[in-house]
Amino acid sequence: MKKNKILHVITGLGDGGAEATLVRLCLADKKNEHIVISLMDSGKYGQYLKDNYVTVEVLNMPKGKVTLKGIIKLYKDIKRIAPDVVQTWMYHADLIGGVTARILGIKNINWGVHHSDLTPANSKKSTIFIAKICSYLSYFIPKNIIFCADSAARVHRKIGYSKRKIKIIYNGYDIKLFDRNNNYSASVKKEFHISEGTILLGMVSRFHPFKDHENLIKALGFLKRKGYSFKCILAGAGMLPGNKSLENWIRCSNVEDEVLLIGSRNDIPRIMNGIDIHLLSSSSEAFPNVLNEAMACGTPCVTTNVGDAAVIVGKTGWVTNAMDPINFSKLIEEAIDEMTLNSKLWEKRCLASRVRIIENYTVQLMKEKYVSVWLDELV
């Protein structure tokens, strides 16, 4: 039986949530042929996709710029591939990939939106401008507009995106990769020379204004002043000694002895299992992947109320307003107190965290929903 060709056009293949979701989707769907075109370079995931037999083409456009050479190559690539379905990812790809595919006569075009905050404080002017252009084109270019979060859909309805084309498909996660493993707790603490009884907090996130690490570090400072003893590892791109902003915040909050900057890691499931509580301090998100990954490992979360974070966590964790380090700190206290004073309730919370992901946010469920949207248009 001939496989359908699914062409993905994405802005880039760097270290981001949408990019990781694309990779999981391509590898999970064995019944269709997946081809990926990156408007920029191969980034973090290009070679990984190739190693897993997914064809990857790159246009090598500079970040934030569109080149005539890139547009011509995109046109030729789409024409040569002759896909049954075009799935675009993020605004630039929605616009450029969507319009190019439509010019070539392709009708089964599906946009992918992974952004939920278009306020000037949290989005570039160019991003807001392109989103508004896409809102007008949403009535003519795509068959469907797939949002990864309810919050993202609400924001884009307000700026004029076609309501009848909206589909919501939550990101899905590999629950075999992100599984509970109590042995990792000891090994992670040993790696970072942390004594076994120490409470280990953590946040996995690249360094970016949206992630609001200043909020996190202020909260940790308040926690220390209350007399709590803990360590906190911060993992992700840019989370390394030498980051002047981070080092200044850490020094001002007097948590130099508590915070460990460990940078990018290729063992995130181990890290998620190794920490006792995962923290997310973001001021803006759509569908925070790290909450799902931590919860799948049975690690409860304390998070700011951004995007779909509260929906993801449900009753398994704690949710506070963004940019409120005092209350953030209080909720971390609550989590630590429960963990140290009520082990039975804590274990129930750990189990409930994983069950919530298994029931709602698996990669298998995500794949089935995407395929249903794609192939419905081919019937």
Summarize this structure as a short list of keywords or feature phrases.
379 residues, alpha/beta, Rossmann fold, 7-stranded parallel beta sheet, 15 helices, 44% helix, 16% strand, globular
Overview of the structural elements:
The protein is α/β, with parallel strands linked by helices. It has two domains: 5-172 and 362-375, 3-Layer(aba) Sandwich (Rossmann fold), CATH 3.40.50.2000; 175-360, Rossmann fold (3-Layer(aba) Sandwich), CATH 3.40.50.2000. It is built from 15 helices and 13 strands. The strands form two sheets. Strands 3-2-1-4-5-6-7 form a seven-stranded parallel β-sheet, sandwiched between helices. Helix 9 (244-252) links the parallel strand 9 (230-235) and strand 10 (259-263). This is Glycosyl transferase family 1. GO terms for molecular function: glycosyltransferase activity. It comes from Vibrio toranzoniae.
Question: What's this entry about, in short?
Answer:
By secondary structure, the protein is of the alpha/beta class. Helix content is 44%, strand content 16%. A seven-stranded parallel beta sheet has the order 3-2-1-4-5-6-7, sandwiched between helices. It has a six-stranded parallel beta sheet with strand order 10-9-8-11-12-13, sandwiched between helices.
**CATH-defined architecture of the largest domain:** 3-Layer(aba) Sandwich
The gross shape turns out to be globular
Number of domains: 2
First-last Cα distance = 16 Å
Could you give the count of β-strands?
A: 13
Domain Glycosyl transferase family: 190-342
Protein name: Glycosyl transferase family 1
Domain Glycosyltransferase subfamily 4-like N-terminal: 16-175
GO molecular function: glycosyltransferase activity
